[in-house]
Specification:
alpha/beta, Rossmann fold, five-stranded parallel β-sheet
């Protein structure tokens, strides 16, 4: 029988919670303050901890911090009587699984406990089955190529994340491999039939979000239901409007533990929270496990291996692409370049050269001018602008010049297409 440790300084709360929780199949134990609760947990580890936030001498937040320090896998649900969500958001910041705001409904309490237990069991299963059940080293290294210390640190972090189901926030510039990491995490935690539902928050319209993400009564739309048992992958999370962010919090409270949530951003979300431009509770719900993906310029020593890998995948009418080599001077130029488009730009450059070269040895003179001459180096904004224009042109061609149809695909107003 799953066990719940209830920590509250009011005995009347103990009695009430015992009366509603035990009949649902949970064994209950009690402590009257944070210090006693911590001692009880250490003596007999529980599946769940349900703790009030306002206790003395040790309050619920302090108990939460010490529990997570003692046992990082502890599943702690905080109860708060405060009218605002400030204390609840603080609890999420320090690793609480969720919070309940008093007075709460019995069905809300039981649903939260069951979600917490599901998460606890998921973690236990992953830990028991070992690395083989998560992301295999060979699988990761086939997607994330290189031998640099920065990449090695990232790979080790991904191996650990593959064993848990907590939300993951991938932070990095466009082209740094965020989607590859998301796919690795999905493969490690989802079954063979599970879906990876990929949503670009910068392209979808608010109406689409309300339909696909929020759904009726904030219970989750088609995208959320499709992701159940798999992964919901939200790209460029900072692009969501504040009203949608607020509604998404409610959706995640009800559904987030039925799937793996992976989000990406290329900006400092915490700074946006401080500026009031990003919902604080949403931030702490998605950013409990942040992963920083290094830009290519910070791991230039990986470029030779990356070049060899991507060149070998090209189709050249004159040579076996695996025999094409980039000379030392070409690799030196590529190592010095700042790669504003990161891996995406590198792939474009190498693939084009490898497919069109008429000599097996590629020298620096065959590289694009923007790589060879500092004055031609584009900024990140200039590079992204060029990529955006190419994408819009592609959509227009696909839509046979119909700007109304293209605007619908892109999620923008027709006037923005010129």
């Amino acid at each position: 029988m799953p066990s719940v440790l209830i920590v509250d300084d009011l005995v009347s709360i103990h009695e009430m919670l015992d009366a509603v929780i035990q009949p649902t199949g949970f064994a209950t134990s009690f402590a009257t303050d944070g210090e006693k609760g911590l001692a009880r947990y250490k003596a007999d580890k529980f599946d769940l901890v349900l703790a009030d936030i306002d206790m003395k001498p040790m309050d619920g937040i302090t108990l939460l911090k010490q529990l997570k320090q003692y046992d990082p896998s502890a599943v702690v649900i905080i109860m708060t009587a405060y009218a605002s969500t400030e204390s609840a958001v603080q609890a999420l910041k320090y690793g609480a699984f969720d919070y309940l705001q008093k007075p709460f409904r019995v069905d809300e309490l039981i649903a939260t406990l069951r979600r917490g237990l599901e998460f606890r069991q998921f973690q236990a299963e992953r830990a028991a089955s070992g690395p083989a059940a998560g992301a295999k080293t060979s699988d990761i290294e086939s997607r994330l190529i290189g031998k640099s210390a920065r990449l090695g640190k990232l790979i080790q972090q991904i191996k650990k994340l593959a064993t848990v189901r907590s939300p993951v926030l991938l932070i990095g510039e466009p082209g740094t491999g965020r989607t590859a990491v998301a796919e690795i995490l999905h493969a490690a935690s989802g079954g063979p039939e599970s879906a990876l539902v990929r949503i670009d928050c910068a392209l979808s319209t608010e109406a689409a979000f309300r339909d696909g993400l929020i759904g009726q009564n904030g219970e989750g739309g088609a995208w959320v239901k499709q992701a159940k048992g798999g992964t919901l992958y939200l790209q460029q999370l900072q692009s969501l409007t504040l009203p949608i962010q607020k509604e998404l919090v409610s959706v995640l409270r009800n559904t987030a533990h039925g799937f793996r949530l992976v989000c990406t951003t290329s900006v400092d979300l915490e700074a946006l929270v401080d500026e009031g431009k990003f919902h604080d509770e949403l931030f702490y719900r998605v950013a409990s496990l942040p992963v920083q993906l290094p830009p290519l310029r910070d791991r230039a020593e990986d470029i030779p291996l990356l070049v060899k890998h991507y060149a070998a995948q090209a189709t050249n009418p004159l040579f076996d692409a695996k025999l094409i080599e980039f000379t030392a001077d070409a690799l030196a130029v590529m190592g010095a370049y700042h790669w504003p488009g990161n891996l995406t730009e590198l792939v474009q450059v190498v693939s084009k050269i490898a497919a069109t070269t008429e000599t097996r040895m590629v020298t620096s003179t065959q590289l694009p001018m923007r790589l060879r001459d500092l004055k031609h180096w584009p900024t990140l904004a200039e590079y992204l602008l060029g990529q955006e224009k190419q994408y819009i042109d592609h959509v227009l061609v696909t839509c046979k010049g119909d700007k109304t149809a293209a605007a619908k695909v892109l999620g923008v107003e027709v006037g923005k297409l010129g």
